[in-house]
């Protein structure tokens, strides 16, 4: 074998076994493993975080994703509060209906609807973000989608509470 052929063969072997680095925006991700925004922004005051998140000045893609994640965390907390209030109301109503021997009871259906809604929300937002491909604002868009859909669900529960 000629030296140049040997060199080309070795180079081909090295190139075929080299792993090309992927960006963090390539492939699947699990949003439940995302670092909490409070942890990400630790050491910063609320006003510093608010300024970064509202102005976008000197913000990296990670900063912007965590700002959007922070919005979602707040929307999710509001939803949790409304879920608790709606559950309390429905359980109380179910107990009154059960006392009058009336069926079916609503709480089991609310629980099922919430589980189905969560699956819808997650799948909808994953679908939207994966359509972007390897976009640098992938996580930001994902959290904005999650926030939007969560806010709509919160309004639905508020409607239950008002009626």
TrEMBL record:
Pfam families: LprI
Entry keyword set: Signal
Domain Lysozyme inhibitor LprI-like N-terminal: 53-157
Stretch forming the signal peptide: 1-21
Natural source organism: Paraburkholderia edwinii
Name used for this protein in its record: DUF1311 domain-containing protein
